[in-house]
Amino acid sequence: MKKLMILFAVSLFSLGLSAQNAKVEGNKEALKKNVEKGVIEFIMPENTQAAEIEKSAQYYVDYFTVQYNPTTRVAKITMVDNTPESRRVINRLLLSNGVRTIEFDGQKYSISDFYSNFLE
User: Fold this and answer.
1) Strands (DSSP E) along the chain, which ranges?
2) CA 11 – CA 102 distance, rounded (Å)
3) Where are the alpha helices (DSSP H) in 19-114?
4) Burial annotation 27-38 (CB, 10 A radius, 16+ → b, else e)
5) Which phi and psi (to 5°) does residue 70 adopt?
6) Which residue has the higher pLDDT, 34 or 10?
7) Which residues pair with 110 in a beta bridge?
């Protein structure tokens, strides 16, 4: 029983490590202006690979383009059609690259909460 509890604890710990955070800099007013312009920048997690971002982004070219700088880890997303429905597809890009939470303005949001609060 003790081994089972240890295995369970290790499993939960490893799940927590695999959940990664992206970050959006600035404040709510600046983000609102960027969303209106259709340009949103995410600082991706440290282990993000440029090839993975590019591979994921190719599926969403009807919605947005992604320019990724591996040095700064900034993924600049430029909307093709700047609508709430198109911005929702950003969630898929983030999820496909292991991002589960977004840090913004001193708080952490789930991807869906971030979309509901700032991108919708």
Assistant:
1) 20-24, 39-43, 64-69, 74-79, 99-104, 107-110
2) 23
3) 28-37, 50-57, 84-88, 90-96, 111-114
4) eeeebeebbeeb
5) -65, -25
6) 34
7) 101
Q: Give the tens place of pLDDT for each residue, 21-80.
A: 999 999 999 999 999 999 999 999 999 999 999 999 999 999 999 999 999 999 999 999
Residue position matching structure tokens 């282990």 = 47
d(C-alpha 120, C-alpha 48), whole Å: 26
Whole-prediction pTM: 0.80
| Contacting residues for 112 by C-beta, under 8 A, at least 6 apart | 91
Contact assessment for residue 77 and residue 65, using Cβ atoms and an 8 Å cutoff: yes
Which residue in the block uniquely carries the two structure tokens 């600049």?
Answer: 76
